[in-house]
Amino acid sequence: MSKLSEKTETGTRANLLARPVFFPERFMFEKIIFSRIPAADGRFHSVAMDLTSRALFCSCPFFPKPCVHALALSAMYAREGESCFTRIDALPDWATALISGLPAGRGRQTGPPEDRVATQAQRRFERLERAANGFEDLEAWLLDTIRRGLATVVSEDPRWWENIAARMADASMPGLSRSLRLLGQIPASDPDWAAKTAGGLAECYLAVRAFRKRDTLPRDLAFDLQNFVGIAAKKENVLTSGERQHDVWAIVGQLEEPLEDKLALRRTWLAGGKSGRMALLLDFSFGGAGFPPGFMPGSIQQGTLAYYPSAFAQRALLLDDWTELPKKVEKLHGFEDFDTFANAYATALAKQPWLPYFPAVFSAATACRTGSRFVFMDKNGKSLPLNIPDDAGWRLVALGGGHPLALFGEWDGSSFRPLAAVAEGRFVALFRQ
Predict the structure, then answer these.
(1) Whether residue 225 sits in one domain with residue 122
(2) pTM (2 decimals)?
(3) Of 109, 126, 152, which residue sits at a domain end?
(4) Rounded to whole angstroms, how far apart are CA atoms 201 and 206?
């Protein structure tokens, strides 16, 4: 089905559902209309619309957004007006959580931007508090799973992750829900299945323990906890209050990969020439819509980034002062050996224990094939395994020709995925987009 046909079909379904009987309880607070509609298994989908900004919200897991539920609410308001909504004096907790913790009357807020950001941050931490029951259920499930043993759990229920993932989604923790679903997609034939699955569950349990100690967590680590469970910072808040860094940036790597059905992710890595800092730009594609225009790997850009709050800041947003410089990446400076790299990774992980990727540049490493996999070696003869397809691996080996080259990639805790290399002044992206 074409995108146009899919959009037309969604609009038609929304118009059919745009009736009060489909939204049995309908409320209005100031310029926010909202409702809860029955879903499967006695659960509900929460739907809302900000009449000022025309923004639509829905808690359902379906993409692309806005979904048919939100479009139906908008169409019903256009058809019926305010008369079919019951006015109330305050937003309920679930409606506040749905609109990401922002005050419903934010368009009329006054006062310094710093005060507004502080208020929004406080509401964001309150949203974590409302997930307490979800953490209770997760802890009980994790402890029961470990007592019974992973092999027993999987043999008794091949879709062992499904119910707990749905519970996390109901508890407004989509990040945890996605993590559990992705664990369930690791094939049992993977020789590292047990280690990967146990490691993922350990990260979930670490989140439970961190929640127990949330009152004593450093502020930036509390943001990391929230990001891990799926309470993401709003872009406007990051642009307003995020740490800023102006620099000349080398675009050292880029990778597009699917996350789940109809959801894909693009990671773009930047290396600051003066600051020495790394930065990560994330872009998402829903329903095959494609990614927005981005930077070309190997190019050099100048501009300012605003970093998301984190104990080990990586993700950032672009401000509006970016220009491309008329030169290309010709060299990369980084770790001289694997011991230095390992110490740096340990330091980063101590700061941010849910770190999914650690970006690393190696100034001189030699790629080779050993047995059935590719590795690369430092000047001391120590090796690290490479996570790379055969075609890209052989390209990397050929590029080096048995000699050291500069290499950039992502370390996930068990293997290194090289994204780009520089040999004799030539930048080569290993994954063609």
Answers:
(1) yes
(2) 0.70
(3) 109
(4) 9
